[in-house]
UniProtKB/TrEMBL annotation:
Pfam families: SIMPL (PF04402)
Protein name in the entry: DUF541 domain-containing protein
Signal peptide: 1-20
UniProtKB keywords: Signal
Organism name: Sebaldella termitidis (strain ATCC 33386 / NCTC 11300)
One biological process term in Gene Ontology: DNA damage response
Length: 361
């Protein structure tokens, strides 16, 4: 029985298709109107190119920013281990705020080594005594060099404009007091040995105690930056304070965005608003004229776009300074005031055409 019913329906549909194929275009249009609107209506025209615009204000619910830590160490392994430990602890803190692990990603990771100079001063001094020996012949020159080499002095220079030689007594880098004493003791030892060797005419030409030049040292650095995507409900001020307690810096750039769920929700509402505007326009046009609005003949959809600060485009971006703090900033001492992101907007534009209907008399 079921099989027989299906065959009957197929026969009716087939005969209707053959009948429609035999109609003229005008007859086919009349048949369409009859089936679409029934026997009571005539299609007497078309309302073309009605435009509806739906615009909604939306407050961003997502912000994206970076946190960066630069760690120094005497070896690359030390710098890397300390950096990894600190960033792991900070990541755990972010996760405790409800931020998903997949929303915390490495945006930059670099390892480097460089030669740097330390700070000048800080109790580091050197004393230099320039000594002059007058009237020194060739044989006596080698006797003097032998005595100087015992004190690790390897330079004895003859002055081109006078018959004398000079050498320099220099202390190691130490405190100011020790530097002066060591240089004096060294000078006295040498002077005593020279007199014992029969070499006189020894005098101090200059004396100077000064801060030592900065030491050069090899420093290894590891820099690791996280890009974090979080809800705007997160207290960014407290996050910045926590990062500062780890000496983690924020570059001061925040990008605001809208979550996919919110985009979908407001996009549909914008479409609904644009469509309602078209319907309202069509009713106003035909009001009190004896006509009614039929079905949509066609509709054109311009891609929706998001807009911030009157700059249209598909991007949803806003930058705002979050503040950058020095290393000696005391995180627990003050709350960081943080301004709320401004609203964005979505705009949907639709263009539609309708049948114009009139009741048959």
């Amino acid at each position: 029985m079921k099989k027989k019913t299906i065959m009957v329906i197929m026969a009716i549909l087939l005969s209707f298709g053959i009948l429609k194929a035999e109609m003229s275009p005008a007859e086919a249009e009349m048949e369409r109107v009859r089936q679409q609107y029934g026997e009571k209506y005539l299609v007497v025209g078309t309302i073309n190119n009605l435009v509806g615009i739906g615009t909604l204000k939306v407050k961003p619910d997502i912000m994206v920013t970076e946190f960066e830590l630069k760690t120094e160490g005497s070896t690359l392994e030390q710098a890397s281990n300390e950096n990894a430990k600190t960033m792991t602890e900070f990541k755990k803190y972010l996760i405790s705020l409800g931020i998903k692990s997949e929303d915390i990603e490495t945006s930059r990771y670099t390892r480097n080594n460089e030669t740097v100079q330390g700070d000048k001063g800080k109790g580091r001094y050197v004393t230099k005594i320039d000594v002059r020996i007058n009237s020194l012949d060739t044989q006596r020159f080698y006797d003097v060099m032998g005595i100087l080499e015992q004190e690790e002095i390897s330079r004895l220079v003859k002055n081109d404009y006078g018959n004398y030689y000079t050498y320099t007594v220099e202390s190691p880098v130490t405190t100011e007091k020790s530097s002066k004493q060591i240089a004096k003791d060294k000078y006295d030892r040498i002077e005593k040995k020279l007199r014992g060797a029969g070499i006189g005419n020894v005098e101090i030409a200059s004396y100077n105690t000064a801060e030592a030049e900065p030491e050069k040292k090899q420093v290894y650095t590891v820099t690791h930056a996280f890009r974090v995507r979080m809800k705007t409900s997160v207290d960014m001020g407290k996050v910045l304070q926590k990062g500062q307690s780890y000496k983690i810096k924020n570059p001061g750039r925040i990008t605001y965005d809208i979550s996919e769920d919110l985009k979908k929700k407001y996009t549909l509402e914008a479409y609904e608003k644009a469509m309602q505007e078209i319907v309202d326009k069509s009713k106003v046009i035909l009001r009190n004229r004896g006509y009614e609005v039929g079905d949509i003949k066609y509709i054109n959809d311009s891609s929706p776009y998001w807009n911030y600060n009157n700059n249209s485009g598909s991007g949803i971006v806003m930058m705002q300074n979050s503040g950058n703090f020095s290393a000696d900033y005391k995180a627990a001492s003050v709350d960081i005031p943080f301004s709320v992101a401004q609203e964005m907007s979505i705009t949907v534009t639709l263009t539609a055409s309708y049948d114009i209907l009139k009741l048959k008399r």
